[in-house]
Amino acid sequence: MNLNTIPNIKHLNSGNFFLLAGPCAIEGEDMALRIAEKVVSITDKLQIPYVFKGSFKKANRSRIDSFSGIGDEKALKILRKVAETFLVPTVTDIHTNEDAAIAAAYVDVLQIPAFLVRQTDLVVAAAQTGKVVNLKKGQFMSPESMKHAVQKVLDCQNANVMVTDRGTMFGYQDMIVDFRGIPTLQQYATTVLDVTHSLQQPNQSEGVTGGRPDKIETIAKAGIAVGVDGIFIETHFDPANAKSDGANMLHLDYFEDVMTKLVAIRKTVNQF
Question: DAHP synthetase I/KDSA domain location, by residue (predicted)?
Fold first, then answer.
């Protein structure tokens, strides 16, 4: 896909990777604007094409008492406010066919969660909105099998599709990134590496997903080195108290340092 199809995306001539980043979930307006302001400042400084990420609701929770959102319309309006305030595009997850049209009225990119990427009706509903569709590779799927998910979007006469690798299950409670899959996925669509979800440690006995945020820089550097098109990172100014996926988010204080290193690696890769 051509990234120019994403409204308000900037710095496309910089030669950099593009970035999808923000909190796991929208917890409130103040936190979303605070994170967006910081990341926009960093990406403008480093000339990284940027899309703000925030889930308007979290339907794929391990426990019924896990945080799922502040209300669909309320969260979607916050995403719209981020877009209008900072003039950046936005992306959010959808979980049902009905979500597609609702979310499409507020955001620029619709993301299909990894657990749901084989759900044909959901993928088609997203594609039929005409929005850019980000298909996250199922933890249980091979890179090669993602060509069928991509084709579902293309068959809806929507060429605005990208795929995101978010790691593959490794035993019951760990994930691993097989970097051989990046060039395979790039045969089918623009390809993103979801760094933070690739470091999840799911299926913990207490019902709260763990993670390895200390390895975020390692995985991100490797992704840029093998030539991935985009990077996905969840970030928060207080991961320990984030209401969703705090265990594998990058602390906002470290964000600029990591991005600076990735930009340097990208410049080296571009020479080849």
Answer: 16-263
pLDDT of residue 64: 62
Domain 3-270 in CATH 3.20.20.70: yes
List, in order, residues 6 or more apart from 123 with CB less than 8 Å away.
112, 117, 133, 135, 149, 152, 153
Of 75, 95, 100, the residue nearest 22 (C-alpha): 75
Can you give the pLDDT at residue 203? 56
Tokens 């799911």, located at residue: 202
Beta bridge partners of 109: 91, 132
CA angle 186, 187, 193 (to 5 degrees): 15
Q: Report the Cα 240 to chain-centroid distance in Å.
A: 20
**The two three-digit tokens of residue 145, written as one number:** 């099998």
* pLDDT for the residue numbered 206: 58
**pLDDT of res. 209:** 58
Ranges of residues in the chain with a pLDDT under 70 are 60-67, 202-211
In the three-class reduction of DSSP (H, G, I as helix; E, B as strand; rest coil), residue 130 is classed as: coil
The token pair that represents 212 in the structure block: 């390895």
